[in-house]
Specification:
Helix content: under 10%
Oligomer: single chain
Shape: globular
Distance between the termini: 41 Å
Number of helices: 0
Largest sheet: 7 strands, mixed
Radius of gyration: 14 Å
Number of strands: 11
Order of helices and strands: EEEEEEEEEEE
């Protein structure tokens, strides 16, 4: 069982910064990767960034160079530092845990558990 709780969302002006955090609890051994997703009104949820247990990271092109994902395994927390925010970044941001799963007779790492979401609003 893995539970996620996001915090840190809010309203900022374009060009500003904001840091999101995610508290992780439960069976950590089932987690193969952590990430952040976002969903804007009328749009599908999309992955923003992810990080592996060894620290390898991924960023969607639109946030590359502006967002930084990090994790603290001692405190069981995941962070997303956002800078140079744009109006297009406005969305509900979700913390996500990727869990080990079996698919096509192979063990895979698939996003499975989500937090409740935290609203990020960027205005001009």
């Amino acid at each position: 069982q893995v539970q996620l709780v996001e915090s840190g969302g809010g309203s900022v002006q374009a060009g500003g910064s904001l840091k999101l955090s995610c508290s992780v609890s439960g069976d950590m051994s089932k987690i193969c990767r952590m990430g952040w997703y976002r969903q804007a009104p009328g749009k599908e949820r999309e992955v923003v960034s992810s990080i592996g247990p060894s620290g390898t990271t991924y960023y969607i092109d639109s946030v590359e160079g502006r967002f930084t994902i990090s994790q603290d395994n001692v405190k069981n927390r995941l962070y997303l530092q956002m800078s140079g925010l744009k109006i297009e970044d406005t969305a509900v941001y979700y913390c996500a845990a990727y869990l080990f799963t079996v698919q096509y007779s192979r063990r895979s790492c698939t996003v499975n558990t989500w937090g409740q979401g935290t609203q990020v609003t960027v205005s001009s």
